[in-house]
Amino acid sequence: MLDVRFLRENIDFVEERLAARGEVLDLDPFRKLDGERRSLLRETEDMKARRNAESLEIGRLRKEGVDAADRMEVVRGLGERIKANDERLKSIETELREFLLTVPNLPHDSVPVGKDENANSLVRTWGEKPDPAFDPLPHWELGESLGVLDLPRAARMAGARFSVLSGAGALLERALISFMLDLHTREHGYREVLTPFMVNADSMLATGQLPKFEEDLFRVEGGQFYLIPTAEVPVTNLHREEIMKEKDFPLLYAAYSPCFRREAGSHGKDTRGLIRLHQFNKVELVKFTLPENSYEELESLTRDAEEVLKRLGLHYRVMSLCTGDLGFSAAKTYDLEVWLPGQESYREISSCSNFEDFQARRAGIRYRPEGEKGTRFVHTLNGSGLAVGRCLVAILENYQQKDGTVLVPEVLRPYMGGMERIAREMGPASKS
RNA sequence: GGAGGAGUGGCCGAGCGGUUGAAGGCGGCGGUCUUGAAAACCGCAGUCCGUUAACAGCGGACCGGGGGUUCGAAUCCCUCCUCCUCCGCCA
User: Which of A199, A201, A182 is nearest to A190 (CA)?
Assistant: First the structure.
């Protein structure tokens, strides 16, 4: 959510910045509602001040035994007008809030202007495309032939966009999760948290999934819960409605969670393999920082995510998303894109964003600046560190050998009982 | 699921329907004292909204959330939520 006072005083500037997102957003409802609210509020508060004074006076008179019936009558009438005004105010405030909740964040100055992903700018690349002397298989063919991936059975038990990993596949997924968490907690200073995988609507509202993107979420039938689309939601909500101390910052968290997404509107996209699923695993990094440090923290957050790819020896590039490709809540985002030889393309494997105070304002996450009166909103950031399933895809495709086996990256071997190579293994009993 | 109990400021804990934003204690901050520290003593301290150049004043709201009664509600009524205890069930 944008700061109402800032919006009021800089409404033309805001309109212009939002236009860079490619979204035509008319801020007139704000102009109208905000003005109405303020004049009505002023009037109503004046009446309340009078009522308070009168009531006090009535109490005093009655204590002295003086009859105050006529005064009480007057105040009763005042009370009725106050009540009517309060109701009107409430509906205006609700409308205003609902409108503000649908206004996206402002892009940071350093974000390239453009209308879609073609305008994203390349920040840097690491490593090189492998140059195998054979035609690399896409991971779904490789995984099935190795017996570590079973998509048909996943489809039967759940549906399209689900997966079953088995044997070395399941082990590799688990190894990746442990490796990532260990790296971030032991070397990068994050604190591991394991949170609920379902949250309430307030939490979804705080991070920006609601109210606008309900169709992307799974809602649990018969309950007030939503399945989380990313651990960003529960972890950011760890400090919802809290006022923290300046010396507490920065706060760094790493969390493993499964992620659940409807993928509404992406029919026909990435229909094969593990790239786009209704359920996938992810290790998420979340930071709470002081406003003045958030952009340097975004750089280090991105580096922390990159380190996973470096240690796995996977070639990738870093893109800065342009204004038109930026997510609703983000002020600036770097995407990490890993090279997938089976598909001859770079695919997003991490998205690292600074939300500035956009989420903090929705969530009420504040701190007390030292030597200053009052409170300020913190800045929140998060990034995948990394998407585990896509990471598994990248390993299968990048580490496949001519003989159809897959080498296990060095750093993962300790997590896999020393396994150096994934060879064809006995899968589950074959279908008749 | 059944039966009881409780929700007040960072924490603990008072609060006959009328200067109670809220006693007291702890913690925090500033000061006195001290070579320094502790102790003791003095003082300051909530959040949000509106007005405003102002994080100065002034006004309004907030005692789990929402609604009601009343001239006036932290205090009375209704409702929802959360937590605790006992029984049942359960990984």
Answer: A182
Helix (H) or strand (E) holding A282, with range, is: strand A279-289
- A11 CA, B50 C1': separation in Å? 20
Q: What is the DSSP string of A367-400?
A: EE-TTSSS-EE-EEEEEEEEEHHHHHHHHHHHSB
A117-422: which CATH topology?
BirA Bifunctional Protein; domain 2 (3.30.930)
d(C-alpha A405, C-alpha A172), whole Å: 14
Q: Which chain B positions come under 7 Å from a protein C-beta?
A: 10, 18-19, 47-51, 55, 59-61, 67-68, 70-72
Active-site hit among A71, A144, A348, A368: A348
Q: Is the ipTM of this complex over 0.90?
A: no
Task: Compute φ and ψ for A86, nearest 5 degrees.
Answer: -60, -40
Burial of A265 (0-12, 13-18, 19+ CB in 10 A): exposed
pLDDT, mean over chain A: 93
Residue A318, SS3? strand
Q: Render A400-420 in DSSP notation, one character per residue.
A: B-TTS-EEPPGGGGGGGTT--
Which of the four pLDDT bands, split at 50, 70 and 90, describes residue A428?
low
- CATH code of domain A28-100: 1.10.287.40
Task: Say if residues A13 and A20 touch (Cβ distance below 8 Å).
Answer: no
Contact A30, A7 (CB under 8 A): yes
Is A372 a known active-site residue? no
Q: Please state whether strand B lies within 7 Å of residue A182 at its CB atom.
A: no
Interhelix angle A69-100/A28-63, nearest 10 degrees:
160
Domain boundaries along the sequence of chain A = 28-100, 117-422
Residue A137, Cβ neighbours under 10 Å: how many?
17
A257 given a catalytic annotation? no
Element (H, E) at A353: strand A345-354
pLDDT for position A431 = 46
Q: Give the helix/strand (H/E) hosting A93.
A: helix A69-100
